[in-house]
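QA checklist item 7 of 12: single-chain prediction sanity check.
[x] sequence parsed
[x] length recorded as 284
[x] structure emitted
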Amino acid sequence: MRLGMIGLLWLLSSSVIAMDALDERSLSQVSGRDGISFDLSGFVYDSKGTYTYTNTTTGTQLVLGDLYAARSDNPDQFADPYALYTVKRGNGLADVTYLDFPKNVLGAEKWQIAFDWRTVDGAGAFNNGALVVHDLAMYGGGFQFSTPADGNGLSWGLGINLDIGSLMLRPNGRGDINNPADPAVTNQMVLHNIHVGAVDQYGNPINQAWQIADVDAQPGQFYVAGDGSLHLGIQAPVSGTAAAGTISVGNMSFANPNPASLHDLGASRIGSIQIQSLDIKFKQ
């Protein structure tokens, strides 16, 4: 792993003019949003390692490998950092840790990501190919996580306001380069110019993060069920309605180099979408 310069800037919740000693009772009542801010200037992660989830009941596996991630930089390296902090909830509930993404007003902070994935069962290993992401730019939003109010696992929240230049699914792996006879054609499914973000009550896009899950208002779930299966989901809203967002794709296409063919499906947009509840069970 090669990690570029990472700046860690400590945040103080208030200016300190004088400091007095506090007794234990006073200390127990102190709460705030102290934490750290950090930038990922020059960040590059390139690993040949694998990350494996094994179903202990069936022995099947989900394997992610050869993860690559790199980020371009804001001209002012520390002007727009990430923020990591913890907030107390009370009422016997566990604290919530927040990771706020940079606002990225200039759109200069873009990610390049790729990884391979495969599944393994009694019949052997099945290579599902690679996911390649070009020019992922996030504009605010962030991630939350805590202990679930009920049950085991992880309770999470996620707000996203992002653009993706292109997202490619390559069944023969990321090394399946363009056909030399036609550089525009390769064996892949590609989505160009993706946008995901919030909308107002009339379905109009606004420059804010779509809160698809929230630890308090609509918790996300990540846990292992009694049968050993891995679940990723979102509960129904605790009260009110789910937040609304929009998803748009500038162009969708499927390509095959042998024989060379390109199927252009055009553009697609969901003007307003709400996730009332979700449960994804990874196959055993």
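[x] summary fact logged: The two ends are 32 Å apart (CA to CA).
[ ] second reviewer sign-off
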